[in-house]
Here is the input.
Amino acid sequence: MPLAERVQVLAGSWRADALLAAGLGLSSVAFMAAQGVLHGTSNLIETCCGLGVCASLAARRQYPKLAAGAAACCLALTVLGNSSDLPDDLILAPVFLLAYSLGAAADVASSAVVAAGLVAGAQAAIGLTVFNPFILVATLGPFALGLVVRSRRRIADQLAARGRELEEERELFAAEAVRYERARIARELHDIVAHCISVMVIQASAGQRASATDPALAAEAFDAISEAVGQAEAEIGRLVEMLGHDPQPRHTDSLRLVDELVARAGAAGLDVSCRFAGTTDGLTERARDAAYRVVQESLTNALKHAPGAPVEVLIAEAGGHAEVRVVNGPATATATGLHRAGGGHGLAGMRERVGACGGDLSAGPVESGGWQVLARLPRPSEPLPPPPDLRRATEAPA
Here is the structure.
């Protein structure tokens, strides 16, 4: 440890007070010896009381009130001796330090009482017949300074505690951000992989049935599987690019990819139609991505839960905002087994994605026995009107 740090550590410990007490005590004895007054009972009592005042400095940090009280008693007892022989400057130095320690103590009320006793003891040591205002200055001044230091220490402790709380909150927020990001990545992967796997399962089943009777149709099914795999690979690559440290700006209009999405679903055997009405200009890129994912997830759910049912996709302008409506009829074909796949988070993910854009999403059965998903996406300058009445029902697992 460097010398400067050692000196600083020593100055802040009780050892420095003990050394100061020893130095002042020896100086007092030397002064009185030089005056030739170290004889007689009264002078010896006075000398012992002076040494007691100096010795009390050693405990002023750990026990400030006890040390100051002991010093006050020793000062008061000097009236039994010849107080005129006591070195005033050496006695007032401990009084100054003890008064400061009292002001910096935790209990202000009791410390003030002890400080008053210290003033009385110092006045008795100097002389009861003559009032010395310097005693008040040497006692109340350091006491007030100790009060200021005590207040600053309390503020520093509060700031340190608040800093620890903020650090803990920052760690909690960081953990929550990581959890949210993991959920977002999982949702993106769900939207990408679930749709492509559903298409591949249906095409593989169709290709297996046609392989014996119609090789050309089986080849088309396997081509569709290859195309679905390529699409999944491309979208996963785009997701990896989005998660990169320096993603490149994208200029793809996700809504324009809906036609391609619908075409792939139609090639998988889904009776699906898509219609655009009005303009969707003004939607943010995030809202366009949300609209694309709503259509993708809705078509995936139709493939899983309503095989053979017709599906209608409508993307339209409605009252200053955009609506994405996907309606499918009841199932008309044999179940493919896809309805047992998935974790039931598809609709929740759609609702979260649309909500992040400031929109809302409704899902529920329709009178014909099918299912409808309705997403309403606002333009940045257009607040959404109240949502229409849509009968809610238990959401189908995705």
About this structure: Strands lie at 271-277, 310-318, 321-328, 360-365, 371-378. Residues 364 and 394 are 7 Å apart (CA to CA). Confidence is low (pLDDT under 50) at residues 389-398. Residues 133-210 form the longest helix (78 residues).
